[in-house]
Amino acid sequence: MRKIKAKIAEIFKSIQGEGIYQGVSQVFLRFYGCNLNCKFCDTHLDFYQEMDLEEVLERIFSFDNYHSISLTGGEPLLQLDFLEEVLCFLKTKKKIIYLETNGILFENLKRIIDFVDIIAMDFKLPSSTGERDFWREHKKFLEIALKKEVFVKAVVCGSTEIKDILTSIAIIKEMASSIFFVLQPQHPFEDTVEEKLKLYQKICLEEGIKSKVIAQLHKFLGIK
Ligand code: SF4
After folding, report:
1. What does the DSSP 8-state code read for residue 201?
2. Is the CB–ligand 1 distance for residue 37 below 6 Å?
3. Does the C-beta of 102 come closer than 6 Å to ligand 1?
4. Cα(14) to centroid of ligand 1, in Å?
5. CA separation for the pair 224, 221 (Å, rounded)
6. Does the CB atom of residue 168 touch ligand 1 within 6 A?
7. What tens digit of pLDDT does each residue of 35-67 get?
8. Which CATH number goes with the domain that contains 146?
9. Interval 163-175: pLDDT, tens
10. Centroid of ligand 1 to alpha carbon of 186 (angstroms)
11. How remote is the CA of residue 175 from the centroid of ligand 1, in Å?
């Protein structure tokens, strides 16, 4: 039988630097390649290794004492066949699976949702990313992600426009107002970001949406 191989950028243990699980210990399985090109992207990967299931598992199981395994990238959902294979195995070992995703490839999420425990989903605000909007995809993605624990994160930078925050809030209210909305300032901060964060958080409060401003811890600690 043909062995499925994945393009893996790195596998390492560290501290989760973003979102509501910030600070927990994780093993990171970083997939190479992305379907977007966000202007604030800090994971420009130029190296990968082709690895099969055995090689990836051997590396993951060389670590112990961690909260969960983070599937990150790039965009992990692009390498679906491999993802399905590795997650199927990790679930038999009762590992907690944490998926970090740009929240666009909803059809791919459908195939692996049963293996995932926590989903850290980005809303890609067009005014922040420089890309087109993905509201339709984000809604469909969230519909599926809601079968599991999910929170939404959006990067706030100098170019972020309030209309994108209002659309994000409207989607969260429509889908499930219990979802946490994480406002993540781009690192390093631009001058106007502080005022934006205060304003966006005020709007979230007024709209009954749970929000938190959470900066990237790993950038402050100078770790991966
Ligand atoms: S989705 Fe994430 S990995 Fe892909 S370009 Fe945007 S920030 Fe970078």
Report:
1. H
2. yes
3. yes
4. 20
5. 9
6. no
7. 999 999 988 778 999 999 999 999 999 999 999
8. 3.20.20.70
9. 999 999 999 999 9
10. 13
11. 24
**Is 35 a pocket residue for ligand 1 (Cβ < 6 Å)?**
no
User: Cβ distance 123 to 99 under 8 Å?
Assistant: no
- The alpha carbon of 121 and the centre of ligand 1 are apart by a number of angstroms equal to 12
CA–CA dist 185, 60 (Å, integer): 31
CB 56, CB 34: distance < 8 Å: no
Share above pLDDT 70 across residues of the chain, in percent, rounded to a whole number: 99
Residue 178, token pair as written in the block: 């219990």
Question: How many domains does the chain divide into?
Answer: 1
Which domain range does residue 101 map to?
Answer: 5-221
> Sheet holding 211-213: strands in order across?
49-52, 5-15, 25-31, 68-72, 97-101, 118-122, 149-156, 181-185, 211-213
52: its two tokens: 């099969």
> Whole-angstrom Cα distance, residue 50 to residue 41?
23
Tokens of residue 55, six digits: 């090689």
Atom of ligand 1 nearest to the CA of 102: 1
Confidence of residue 2 (pLDDT cuts 50, 70, 90): low
Pocket test for ligand 1, best of 30, 34, 152 (most atoms within 8 A of CB): 34
> Is the minimum distance from the CB of 41 to ligand 1 under 6 angstroms?
yes
Instruction: Enter the tokens of residue 222.
Output: 């100078």
pTM of model > 0.85: yes
Q: Cis omega before residue 188 (within 30°)?
A: yes
